[in-house]
Design goal:
Blueprint: H1 3-15, H2 19-30, E1 37-38, H3 40-46, H4 53-61, E2 69-72, E3 75-79, H5 80-96
Antiparallel strand pairs: 1-3, 2-3
């Protein structure tokens, strides 16, 4: 059997995965429970349903989420404890409305 056909057939099988299986895989691979710092993508995965990085940028610009970035090289990360307190504050604000 041609190895190119095998690759093609395996890519079709991966397309058949349900959205829930893909989201489950993404959330388990992105969120590291022992990490002290989180990226915006990982912060977005903490919400249910997951939120895009664009929405998170807008929320930080509008002071809906007050997070201070820590720069490591050219990447920005956010302290886990700060993120969790801000998420709790954000949820409390939404429940009051």
């Amino acid at each position: 059997m041609d190895p190119r056909r095998e690759t093609f057939s395996s890519s079709n099988e991966s397309k058949r995965l349900s959205k829930q299986e893909k989201m489950k895989h993404q959330s388990s691979s992105l969120v590291n429970p022992g990490a002290e710092f989180l990226s915006l993508k990982e912060i977005g995965m903490l919400f249910s349903p997951p939120i895009s990085t664009t929405s998170l940028y807008k929320w930080m610009r509008n002071d809906t989420l007050r997070l201070t970035p820590f720069e490591f090289g050219n990447k920005k990360f956010y302290r886990r404890t700060d993120v969790m307190t801000e998420i709790a504050r954000h949820k409390a604000l939404n429940h009051e409305k």
